[in-house]
Automatic annotation (TrEMBL):
Belongs to the glycosyltransferase 9 family. This is Lipopolysaccharide heptosyltransferase 1. Keywords: Cell inner membrane, Cell membrane, Glycosyltransferase, Lipopolysaccharide biosynthesis, Membrane, Transferase. Pathway: Bacterial outer membrane biogenesis; LPS core biosynthesis. One of its GO terms (cellular component) is cytosol. The keyword Cell membrane applies. The gene is rfaC. It is an enzyme of class 2 (transferase). PANTHER family: LIPOPOLYSACCHARIDE HEPTOSYLTRANSFERASE 1 (PTHR30160:SF19), TETRAACYLDISACCHARIDE 4'-KINASE-RELATED (PTHR30160). SUPFAM superfamilies: UDP-Glycosyltransferase/glycogen phosphorylase. It comes from Fluviibacter phosphoraccumulans. It comes from the Bacteria.
Amino acid sequence: MQPKLSDPPRFLLMKTTSLGDVLHNLAVVSDLQRVFPGAIVDWCVEAPFAEIPAWHHGVRHIIPVSIRRWRKHLFKRETWAEISLALGALRSEHYDAIIDTQGLVRSVLLGRLAHGPVYGQNWREAREPLSGLLLNHPLAVPYALHAVERYRTIAATALGYADRLPALPLDFGLNTRYPLQPGNEVFLFTNTSRDKKLWPEDHWISVGRALRDAGLVPVFTAGNDIEAARSQRIAAGIAEGSALGEVLFRPTLTQLTERIAKARLCLGVDTGFTHIACALTVPTIAIFTDTDPELAGGFGLGLRQTFGHLDSCPPVSDIMGQLKAWGFLPA
């Protein structure tokens, strides 16, 4: 059942985590702005990723939550003060539709705390089946879609514009804020959240040396000391005694995205940073070793290619071949 819309329509998006998923949900905001000009869009998101919705001009209010941290510190006064603020923000007004694209019990329960009907995937399709049973309006949107397509389809089905969705352009709303200014840097996103997603260090060194010889300057990121040590080992292997590539240690998401927009090229494992590069349309090679690319591969309008699959390790030759095909390395 489609909601009765106010003038202007008011929507709340429930996409709380993680980095890549929150980024991909930006496309939903662009769709809503095109289909419902002037629509009010608020967004509930985990605090570490609250920068991302703010990048889109179509988002009015951001409601940060910290579920994981709250659960660890339930008996602290500060925790309950933060919970009270979040609940107050969620319940501050009535929404025509609350669109849950997370598919988790906690995200649906948060949505139910707000004022308005909650839409999302039914129990057969949701990531956590129980979440589909808690919705006001469960939808038969297949899970077996790429994340971007899935999120856009959930919103379109809920609000009755699914027939128009194929004609709506893919737009993450980033071009104005982060215009491309390609220089000579190549970002190598060598770190990720799980060791099974890593690509061997010697593979990175082989590709990095070829890119160095082609005149590109490697740049790395690190979120902790272990990641920093890994990046520095790879940087040293690439340099072979010359100047080491820069390692950006714990940049904010906004700082990093501004820097990525100035890159000539990006290569990365399955990490949100790789998805940012794709969304910005920076030429990007995604290297997957423990992820299904059909569900979460590199997605965007620029040059992009994903190698690997579940329990696979793409060989260096595949990456080199793509770089040659794109003209970044000599044939």
